[in-house]
Amino acid sequence: MRKIEHIGIAVKNLETSNLIFEKLFGAPAYKQEEVESEGVKTSFFMNGPNKIELLEATNPESPIAKFIEKKGEGIHHIAFDVEDIIAEIARLQQEGFTVLNEVPKKGADNKLVAFLHPKGTNGVLVELCQEIPN
After folding, report:
1. Where do the VOC domain residues begin and end (predicted)?
2. What's the pTM?
């Protein structure tokens, strides 16, 4: 893992939350997109070298909808940038971590992503991210 890629925050209303984070950071989101496969709409903000991803559920079966129902709005995951997501998945499995999706999938912000089960990471959902080459 090379660095923290972003911190994901689950929100009930993306439009309202965008306004809050625009005021907080003094700048608008640099990117918004929908990831249909995950049932979310996202906004990305930069704060210095750091990124924040806001996530709103687009359907009640979305992992974000279930998270908010159970825990309320707040930090949902921490994402780490990796050079080779396949190799990192294999390494982490050998270390005993439970990978929720062994085959990376396309996520937001032009990334391949995979998640580690939070039961093995002190309750924190960990996302692995690899830039998709153009």
Report:
1. 3-131
2. 0.92
